[in-house]
DNA sequence: ACATAAAATGAATAATGATTCACTTGTTAG
DNA sequence: CTAACAAGTGAATCATTATTCATTTTATGT
């Protein structure tokens, strides 16, 4: 026996995988999934295309993983906002803000996650991601119902409406169809946008004018 | 001069174009945009692929036109519901019902229009289509504000939230990721789904518990 | 140094589907 | 009937990209 995988090699491989993955992320951040081709990613990572395939089964697999990780960060942030102190309503409000503000801060990635046309495997991830949001919201709504700050309702349904309302409100502003000039809203405008989304959503939940 | 386009010929051509167009519609209704290939459409219409290109500049052009027409029908129905007698709130409610019920009745087409990943040109049509809905809703909201049945608010924003909430609520049920069994909801379930969407939306608009 | 095995390479291949175009067929007017 | 032109044809071509694989490079243990 003359070759056995050593620690050093394991590290180097892990590094390579990481580098590829991160370059994939960067590609998506720059031009969305559509313009992110395996050849580009490999090139950016400084490896041959063939090498990429040693680390990922297929393009779809790679981008599904990228999607998943980008998504997880976002979902975590929302979960975090929901895990603070206060009534369910306050926490939901904070979570919606978090969602919208983060999206407006990183518009290309946000658009890719929310609305860009993608391959089926990635689309499947998107479905999961939206469901993940919905489940977090749903939980908070149930808590709200329990504590009396939210009137009884189909928590599942309402949570889906929340996700839809906020996502749709962002699609327009984030869309690359807009010129960059249009996409760059003033902080003032952003603030207003977020406020009116939150307002609609909380009213929809509580049936209480605010 | 020996050949000049005659009435008969004009008709025949119009017929051919129509046939191609309609077969395109059928293809989309059956399997969505993804599975609708020019070759299929041509075959279904009983013409050669080359012929199709005498009537449509490109695949994208053809399907964008198909999308537009399918969409127009839906938007018209909503506009119709909004044009009846009654307060803005009642009319908006009727419009939301119309939207949801029609979608549940033709799930494949509805999914294609609302959520299927599509080519850029078609995606652009989708943006317009969602805006068309939003504009109709917006108008009704403004009327509601004027007549006092809806509290003052950013009508534009609220209308976008309506579109998002209803679309998102339908994506899950319509998605072909669901088995057909899952997708076939009982009329009972459909009714409940529609009710809870409408409830959330009207509350979001009016801030009044119902 | 050398044998062994894994990792990296990237040009060649495969797969998919839209689009073209040289040619055939059909239509019209004189 | 025939010249003149338009419509129709569909196999061949083109374009785009993901994926493979024969070959080269690199790492390891003796």
Structural commentary:
The structure is a homodimer of 210-residue chains. Chain A has 210 residues and is mainly α. Chain A has two domains: 56 residues, Homeodomain-like (Arc Repressor Mutant, subunit A, Orthogonal Bundle), CATH 1.10.10.60; 148 residues, Tetracycline Repressor, domain 2. The first copy, chain A, is built from ten helices and no strands. In chain A, helix 1 crosses helix 4, helix 6 packs across helix 8 and helix 7 packs across helix 8. The longest helix of chain A is centred in the middle third of the chain and has 28 residues. The first copy, chain A, is elongated and about 70 Å long. The N and C termini of chain A lie far apart (75 Å). The model of chain A has no long low-confidence stretch (mean pLDDT 93). At the A-B interface, helix 7, helix 8 and helix 10 of A face helix 7, helix 8 and helix 10 of B. The structure holds a DNA duplex (30 and 30 nucleotides).
């Amino acid at each position: 026996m003359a070759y056995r995988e050593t620690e050093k090699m394991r590290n180097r491989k892990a590094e390579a995988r990481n580098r590829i993955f991160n370059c994939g992320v960067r590609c998506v951040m720059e031009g969305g999934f559509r313009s992110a081709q395996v050849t580009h990613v490999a090139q950016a990572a400084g490896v041959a295309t063939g090498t990429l395939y040693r680390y990922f089964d297929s393009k779809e697999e790679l981008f599904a993983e990228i999607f998943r990780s980008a998504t997880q960060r976002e979902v975590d942030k929302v979960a975090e906002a929901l895990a603070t102190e206060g009534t369910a309503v306050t926490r939901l409000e904070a979570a919606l803000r978090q969602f919208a503000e983060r999206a407006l801060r990183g518009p290309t990635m946000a658009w890719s996650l929310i609305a860009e046309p993608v391959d089926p495997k990635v689309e499947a991830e998107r479905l999961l991601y939206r469901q993940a949001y919905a489940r977090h919201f749903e939980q908070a709504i149930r808590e709200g119902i329990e504590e009396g700050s939210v009137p009884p309702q189909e928590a599942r349904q309402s949570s889906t409406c929340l996700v839809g309302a906020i996502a749709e409100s962002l699609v327009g502003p984030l869309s690359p169809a807009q010129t960059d000039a249009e996409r760059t809203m003033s902080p003032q405008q952003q603030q207003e946008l977020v406020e009116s989304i939150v307002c609609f959503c909380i009213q929809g939940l509580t049936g209480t004018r605010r």
